[in-house]
Amino acid sequence: MNKKLLLLGDEAIAQGAIDAGLSGVYAYPGTPSTEITEYIQANPVASTRGIHSKWCTNEKTAMEAALGMSYVGKRALVCMKHVGMNVAADAFVNAAMSGVNGGLVVVAADDPSMHSSQNEQDSRFYGKFALVPIIEPSNQQEAYDFIQLAFDLSEKYKIPVLFRMVTRLAHSRAVVTTRDTREENPLSYPTNPGQWVLMPLVAKVRYKALIADQEKFMEESEGLSINKFFDGKDKSLGIIACGIAYNYLMEHFKDGIDYPVLKVSQYPLPKKQIMKMRRECDALLVIEDGQPFAEEMIRGLLDDGIKVYGKLSGDLPRTGELTPDNIMGALGIAPAQAYEACGLVVSRPPALCMGCGHRDMYAALNEVLREYKDAKVFSDIGCYTLGYLSPFHAIHSVIDMGASITMAKGAADAGQHPSVAVIGDSTFTHSGITGLLDAVNANANITIIISDNLTTGMTGGQDSAGTGRLEQICIGIGVEPSHVRVAIPLPKNMEEMKTIIREEINYKGVSVIIPRRECIQTARRHAKKQ
Ligand SMILES: Cc1ncc(C[n+]2csc(CCOP(=O)(O)OP(=O)(O)O)c2C)c(N)n1
What is the largest CA-CA distance in the chain? Predict the structure, then answer.
């Protein structure tokens, strides 16, 4: 039965996937993708059906578990933020080589403008790199509808489908009309089980098959089922609008647009449609959120002197989110009237919450490190990254999840002392564990602080994979039990914490200090529930 729901773009994906007969969502939290899994976790149909929705340890384990579910014939969804694709890439690219059985859709949520990320990488490159179809909705209804198409496409060609989102679409709401919920797939096994063993003799055959399938993927794109060509009488310009850019464009031209418009929601780029536009129009404007992915390919495709406007020509900004206003700027139209902020609300830099255990950890660490010349603190990604800002100024690097321990090890290998790593509990299990094994194997002279707030705080308080087991994990990896130290980060324990930190810095080898106190936000929530 059709229902109308007011959904975030992320929630539209989740609802669309449930209605498409989903059997499992596999994800590690990351803005702006987290709400997809949270919606499925809270959905009554999903819980009645027993749809798997438990958080995974990282994006690679998520991708592989989803591939396993697909192998036995069921529909699986994988969700992550764009940088998660770097972690999952090995499994993702090779899943394109093996092919899939049940539908496998991979949602990569990009974050242009870096609202909550360390870069602006555009996940469409991963789709092209892995040679799989990419789907990119322009609004919430399409997010709902296209996720079902993505599952169908995945099963039709036995290929993973990449579903690209951007922050603005993931995190804004619109009314979405839903359809009936499809049954889940029954268990079924691959018709050619050999293709799943990617030894060179198999992989060579599979790669040829994947290359041959590119033509079929192109036909799907040209078929204009979700890509659309809208003719226009003013041929001085043709506009190619990808994903949310189409939404922004039509926000201005509510009553129709005079220029021909090619709306791109599916890749590979529909070559014939682009050539048709090239033949009919004097110049082209390519609008897309993220990197100039389509523009670069279109320039390569045409290479005949036609003027192509876009990010590479400087008519649209190379950095930051695309907006309706900068599209209007590229069209020579004055932007919509903007209103000045009233001044009542003043922007301020983010800060650790008052009462957060990371604060007490940094207060103790800073005091001890003042006793050493040139101490270096390699941090990781989480709430504790805010230790870079006032008042702590406590860390010297943040690169990617898990990098704290390995960077501290590399610096210690070079002779740096003290070489300290600060990592959170969730980030430790995400990708710090393997680095700890390297450090133990090399008996690196480093001090690791796993600042354990018993949750994945930065992304809103999701379960953390190693809660209750961090000491055993470290000891199991080989850290000397007497150098796995636990403390409660509170002002009243400051002296004890300082003593532990000092002792472990002076110990020549790998030591792990675990300041443990529940995140103040999740503690509040738990107290409220009780
Ligand atoms: C590869 C990757 N995946 C996900 C994220 C999003 N993210 C940033 S920090 C973080 C986890 C933080 O949890 P934890 O390490 O426990 O620290 P806390 O925020 O709780 O202090 C996540 C999921 C990311 N930046 N990179």
Answer: 78
